[in-house]
Write a structure and sequence with these properties.
The protein is of the alpha+beta class. It is 24% helix and 28% strand. It has helices at 57-62, 68-71, 86-92, 119-124, 138-148, 158-163, 171-193; strands spanning 2-4, 10-15, 18-21, 29-38, 97-103, 107-113, 128-135, 198-200, 207-208, 230-239, 242-245, 248-251, 258-264. It has a 5-stranded antiparallel beta sheet. Strands 5, 6, 7, 8 and 9 form a 5-stranded antiparallel beta sheet that branches. Strands 1-2-3 form a 3-stranded antiparallel beta sheet. Helix 5 (138-148) packs across helix 7. The longest helix is centred in the C-terminal third of the chain and has 23 residues, at 171-193. The protein starts with a strand and ends with a strand.
């Protein structure tokens, strides 16, 4: 789903060549029907199984955006000359990245391309986010993340995020604490790669997010279209990339390559 950072996060679901305003459907009974077709989100090839949230197996095996270094950016191997797609790496990895703190299910450290601010945080269902560093490459962002995740998690508990029971955190104070504890390692990184390549964002803007949720689930039950091709329920909220129904939740990003029809149910 596509997101916009307004007073309340706005969601649009791509359906063929149109965009459906999902916020406008809150409180309505909807039905999602998966007809059995999956088409690779990169090449469009029909595939029996989706890999890495939307790719066919050949694309999963050959594309740089599906390589293991995307999940573990500190393992970037562009400089070794073994990048799957050097040109893609130059435009997506050898560009400014942001190292940040966010609060989706509690404090976490993460990275994103600067061009993905603030979309990345809305996709995670964060209620707060604070940029900490601007770095010159994806690999540098990963090295910095590794230093900081010794003190704070780097994963989101999606079930806790969806229950909505998340307290606000003083991210500035947490940032200062993390930097005090790791400053020697950060300075060593700056000495090796240059101060301009690892820049602390001193006057960072803190972001806050509100999501279109009428009711949070007390118990999180997740739908899987591979097992249940029809999902029906009253849409009670949207957070992260999840639709929250009174009957369960569904991660729409996971099924981004699936051919799905959306109906207003009787």
């Amino acid at each position: 789903m596509r997101t916009s950072h307004n007073d309340t996060v706005a969601y649009q679901l791509p359906l063929d060549d149109s965009l459906c305003d999902m916020n406008a459907l809150l409180g309505q009974r909807l039905k999602l029907v998966y007809g059995g077709d999956i088409h690779c989100c990169h090449c469009g090839r029909k595939t029996k199984k989706s890999f890495n949230q939307g790719y066919c197996y050949p694309c999963f095996q050959k594309l740089a955006q599906c390589d293991s270094c995307i999940v573990s950016p500190e393992k970037c191997h562009y400089d070794a000359g073994t990048c799957r797609e050097p040109e893609w790496g130059e435009t997506h990895c050898l560009t400014d990245h942001i190292v940040y703190l966010a609060n989706s299910s509690g404090a976490k450290v993460g990275i994103t391309r600067q061009s993905q601010v603030p979309v990345r945080w809305m996709d995670q269902g964060a209620i707060q986010a604070l940029p900490i560093f601007r770095v010159a490459t994806r690999r540098l962002s990963g090295l910095l993340e590794v230093i900081l995740k010794d003190q704070v998690a780097d994963k989101t508990n999606w079930r806790t995020m969806l229950k909505g029971d998340v307290d606000y955190i003083d991210l500035v104070s947490l940032r200062d604490q993390l930097l005090d504890n790791a400053w020697d390692q950060i300075v060593a990184l700056q000495r090796e790669y240059g101060v301009q390549a690892v820049q602390f964002i001193e006057q960072a803007q803190e972001y806050d997010f509100r999501y279109p949720v009428d009711t949070y689930p007390k118990k999180v039950v997740s739908f899987n279209l591979d097992k249940e091709p029809e999902v029906e329920g009253v849409l009670q909220g949207i957070k992260g990339q999840y639709l929250i129904f009174d009957t369960g939740v569904i991660n729409m990003r996971k099924f981004g390559a699936y051919h799905i029809e959306l109906y207003r149910a009787a």
